[in-house]
Design brief:
The protein is an alpha/beta fold. The protein contains 7 helices and 4 strands; from the N terminus they run E-H-E-E-H-H-H-H-H-E-H.
């Protein structure tokens, strides 16, 4: 339910990764749905690729592979991909490395919420039950995203706040966890229950 009426259809689309999109899929995204902006929530190198969907001509650049690094960023309203890696630096190694670097710098590298989020996540990952219980693992990871990578969440929400970006599609690898988190934040901000 939405307290002030209905949500408009055809403006925001929840998806999964686009690396396997066919030419027909891309034509539907561009033509029928009119997608202008793709918010890419993926972060791991193995998830990012150089698929045709990210080509400068007819696609949603810049490509995650870096092949468009020399092109200027596209503005709101132009067909583009905006990278908001919700789970950046959340591997066991990266978390430990971030905490050590912050400690060596006298606590000046991380905000307190990030430091607390990293510590909590590191402790959670050290418990075997975290890895055996998929629900616990996913819930813990999404909780950590909120504390540690709030900058990426804010970046995605700012894209969504600009009417020039619509219609917008957003997704991660499977379109469930990171994508579900952004969907929950959007619907919650609109007062949908």
């Amino acid at each position: 339910r939405c307290p002030r009426g209905r949500l408009r259809r055809g403006l925001l689309f929840r998806t999964a990764q686009w690396n396997s999109a066919t030419p027909g899929d891309l034509e539907r995204l561009r033509g029928e749905l009119g997608i202008k902006t793709y918010i890419d929530l993926r972060s791991e190198k193995h998830e990012l690729g150089g698929a045709p969907c990210f080509d400068a001509e007819g696609g949603f650049p810049p490509c995650p592979s870096g092949r468009h690094a020399s092109l200027p960023p596209r503005a709101a309203g132009e067909r583009r991909r905006v990278h908001c890696p919700f789970t950046k630096n959340l591997s066991y190694f990266a978390v430990g490395q971030a905490l050590r670097a912050d400690e060596q710098a006298g606590g000046s590298l991380l905000q307190e919420r990030q430091r607390a989020g990293y510590r909590w996540f590191l402790q959670a990952m050290s418990d075997q039950s975290f890895w055996k219980d998929l629900v616990l693992n996913l819930a813990g990871t999404m909780r950590t995203v909120l504390f540690v990578n709030a900058d990426e969440i804010l970046k995605a929400m700012c894209v969504l706040a600009d009417p020039a970006n619509y219609p917008v599609a957003f997704g991660c690898m499977a379109g469930k966890d990171r994508t579900g988190l952004l969907a929950q934040l959007v619907l919650g901000s609109l007062g949908v229950s």
